[in-house]
Specification:
This protein has helices at about 5-15, 15-25, 40-45, 50-55, 70-80, 100, 135-145, 160-175, 185-195, 205-210, 260-275, 275-285, 295-315; strands at about 30-35, 60-65, 85-90, 115-130, 150-155, 180, 200-205, 215-220, 245-255. Helices cover about 40% and strands about 20% of the residues. By secondary structure, the chain is an alpha/beta fold.
């Protein structure tokens, strides 16, 4: 190559579409698809950060609900979108579990997306109604061991994280606590309160009002450490299953081939927003732990979660639909 061509080449690289997209991004509103119903936990979770992210990015973040098929309709919409950073997917950790839930998917939940970041982590809590004879998590395990199949647990759906937490408890304790799936956490909670089901694994935000009202008893927290909102409630690890550590988490993805500088810009806005004192306080009120992961760290974490939960599904004989 002739030397006088080098300045022209440099100018072409600087003005390439990827470089221009990264340098200018964002110049318009960013569309965030939530693949669940309006008012869902996922949407509520995202709205805790998006006002501050919008201010940092200098453009509106528009949340759009596209519900259906456990979130796969909205996810497919984003997978097929232009990879420019202006369309993204905000989904719960179920995103990395789809391959174990559905026999047929019209997209690859791992390969058709670029991980951006995590909005935050939400520990879950195992609860029973206050009148239950089950007084502790150890008591639940001992009862299930003494009378196999006699204890039941509810979740908001087959393949949901609360369901898989229950299956992991079974596998880790060598017991059989029977899973009763519901179409949503609301009815599951109602039936636990009514005494029809023994145990529910639920988000702290969902269970806390009933715990404070004296209608539910908290048995154990699913994360590795106790939480400030329920400081007297032990973890599952403290209650006999060493190393147990599960949190629900809410991530953000963009279509594959989105320029890396755009991905990093979005990730930085997420981390900067979650570090703001007003946001930290807002998240803490629902027991949510902010994320400090960069995009690369989230990608590695998502891969590990995918492998972990697909293995749990296989060992628990959870059959895809």
């Amino acid at each position: 190559m002739k030397l006088h061509h080098l300045p022209l080449l440099a100018a072409m690289l600087v003005c390439s579409p990827a470089a221009m997209a990264a340098g200018d991004f964002p110049t318009q509103a960013v569309r965030i698809v939530v693949p669940h119903q309006p008012g869902s936990t996922t949407e509520t979770f995202g709205r805790m950060l998006t006002p501050e992210m919008s201010a940092l990015l200098g453009q509106p973040l528009v949340i759009e609900s596209r519900a259906g098929a456990a979130g796969t309709i909205g996810a497919r919409d984003v997978a097929l979108s232009k990879p420019d950073g202006y369309t993204g997917l905000m989904n719960a950790s179920i995103q990395v579990m789809y391959a174990g839930i559905f026999k047929t998917l019209h997209f690859d939940p791992m390969k058709d997306f670029t991980p951006v970041g995590v909005f935050g982590f939400a520990p879950m809590v195992a609860v029973v109604r206050t009148q239950s004879p089950i007084k502790s998590f150890r008591d639940m395990i001992e009862t299930a061991r003494a009378k196999p199949g006699s204890v039941t647990f509810a979740s908001g759906g087959l393949g949901s994280l609360p369901h898989l937490v229950g299956e992991l408890v079974n596998l880790s304790s060598d017991v059989q606590i029977t899973h009763i799936p519901y179409n949503g956490t609301g009815q599951a909670l109602t039936d636990v309160l009514g005494g029809h089901i023994d145990v529910l694994y639920a988000s702290v935000a969902t269970a806390l009002p009933q715990i404070k009202a004296g209608k539910l008893r908290a048995l154990a927290i699913t994360s590795a450490s106790r939480i400030d909102l329920l400081p007297d409630v032990p973890t599952i690890a403290e209650s006999g299953i060493a190393g147990f550590d599960v949190t629900s988490w809410y991530g953000y993805w963009v279509p594959k081939a989105t320029p890396r500088p755009v991905v990093d810009r979005l990730n930085q806005s997420m981390r900067d927003a979650s570090a703001m004192p007003v946001v930290v306080k807002r998240l803490a009120s629902d027991g949510i732990i902010p994320s400090k992961m960069d995009a690369g760290e989230f990608a590695a974490f998502a891969e590990s979660e995918n492998k972990k939960w697909l293995d749990v599904m296989k060992r628990a004989n959870v059959q895809p639909n």
